[in-house]
Amino acid sequence: MIIIVILFIVICILLFVSIKKNKNNAVKEQMEDSIPELILYYSPSCGHCHDFMNNGWQQLKDKPINIKLVEFNCNEYNCKGIDAYPTIILKKNQKVIPYNGNRSYEDIINFVSQN
Q1: Contacts of 34 (CB under 8 A, 6+ apart)
Q2: Cβ atoms within 10 A of the Cβ of 43, count?
Q3: What is the number of structural domains in the chain?
């Protein structure tokens, strides 16, 4: 009888720890999803990419903003579905929104805040 009680207590403790761990992971994932991602697909041989990366993109990196910046060099990665360079995509609130505006810091910040 004592063995059954001990097993029951151990199972309850393990279950409690597992539930708490899953809850913490869910909160962490939700927090990560709440930060928008700005994704840049580029080619190093592209003149427009080079200009943008040295101006607008560099300003985004240098200033304190609440946006995660992600870069994909399409010469190193398989960028399926990317037809032109640079391609900028906003991933926010589980939506993917392509950017088609000017490649200035101000325009991109406005785009992110409006979406």
Answers
A1: 93
A2: 19
A3: 2
Structural domain range at position 21? 1-34
Note whether 65 and 111 are within 8 A (CB).
no
Q: Please give the radius of gyration of the chain, using alpha carbons only, rounded to the nearest integer.
A: 22
24 with 74, same domain? no
CA distances from 94 to 32, 36, 40, 70, 90 (A): 11, 9, 17, 16, 10
Task: Dump pLDDT digits (tens) for 63-75.
Answer: 888 889 999 999 9
- The pLDDT tens digits of the residues spanning 63-108 come to 888 889 999 999 998 888 888 999 999 998 888 999 998 898 999 9
Q: Which two tokens stand for residue 110?
A: 């406005």
Phi, psi angle pair for 14, to nearest 5°? -60, -40
Count Cβ atoms within 10 A of the Cβ of residue 86 and give its class: 0-12 exposed, 13-18 middle, 19 or more buried: buried
The separation between CA 44 and the C-alpha centre of its own chain, rounded to angstroms, equals: 22
Same domain, 59 and 89: yes
The pTM assigned to this predicted structure is 0.68
